[in-house]
Amino acid sequence: MTQEDDHRDTPATPPGEPGGWAAPGRGPSTPPPPPEERRPFTPSEHGRPGHDPTPRHPHPEQAAYGQYPGQGGPYPGQYPDPAQGGQYPGQYPDPAQGGQWWQPGHGPAPGHGPGHGAPPYGGHPGHGGQYPYGAPPPPKPGVVALRPMTLGDIFNGAFSLIRNNPKTTVGLSLIVMAVASILTTLASTWFLDDYTAWLDELMVDPTAVNPDAPILPTSPVTLVLMYAGELIVYLGGSVVLGLLATTIGMAVLGHRLTPRQAWEAGRDRMGAVIGLALIKLGIQFLMWIAVTVGMVGAIVLGVVVGMESGGGTGFLVGLLLFLLVIAAVIVPGTWIWVRLYYAMPLVVLERLGPGRALARSWRLSQGQWWRTLGYWLLTGLLVFVVGMILNMPFSMVSGVFTFIDPTAAWTIVASSALIYVGTVLVYAITQPFAAGVNTLLYVDLRMRREGLDLRLHEAARAGHAVGPEIYLPEPRA
Description:
It contains 13 helices and 2 strands, in the order αββαααααααααααα.
């Protein structure tokens, strides 16, 4: 029982006794009128309940629910009771009767019998369908209010997610990225060892270097392992985004998933998550090829024009072509990338395949490109700054070890270990925030486009146990 319910169910204490109430203008010695002499509320000519001209409470929000300020006693139906879903206890306005009030004990409420719904949420006769002191705020069972969100709502929600449930958000990211970063750290250590040995040999005797040896100061196996490690890190970050999408979706409704629950809810979607990550990596690779080919073509054409003209014309032509290539590849590539920004939460929460998730993200983001781009760039800037700040002390200490003795094996191992710890820590902090912004933007967009907030309102009001299936789209008729 809430505090408001307890107040309504407890009879008013007579004046003069400890804790007794007293209406404005009445002293403690003035006895209240007998209950049978109290005039019941009757509708006035304006369709509102008759009221006493006694001034109301100067701060109505401080009055108890169900109490009429200035009348010296609890009267039902004066202020909406959140415990009853925002309805008025005891009295109901009847839209069918022009907003007239019906009181219990006077027969069935007109317009509220079988086949009629409850009074509209937030309705109040005589005030344009609104509460006399403003509409009630939307419910907030979790990290954000259940309404279309602003920039502050989304970023505060992402930070609140990490602060309220670090065991799942930071813990999952830490575990996944610690495993995913092992290979790339080892390969980087081997590469650094080979490069240091090659540099020492070159400094001692530059002529001793074999001109027929490969240009790169390391073996091809090390390079393959480095690229394979980077791929695993990229896939690990995608797995973190997929696992946290379920956690964030449930945090909107106030449910705190444990790491085990988050894994059980998202493990059957890991194949689709990895497939989506590979498709997006392929799109990035095609964009990189297009930029590289365009840059090489611009340089070659600039050199040819420069040789024929004998002046700086070739440089200007090459620079102009380079800018044109950048505009022709980067601009449409960025446009496509932003339209596919919502694919990851769609794969997990709506249980779509990679291709269908990309297509739905394309439709869902229509008309929201600039807004999504702004959020994406701002999130990337914050992630970059936070990552740089967190990684700075590890890089500085690693540099100190390298400066002490760059040829010693222990300095190389210690430097690589510090870089590994710093990298994992950066991922553990920044990945949950990026996932939070991504998923909350998806939820916000569905609220704006599909009325998802109404379904979440109902789930929060009912208090029933719900799972990620609440985000499944309703079947089309």
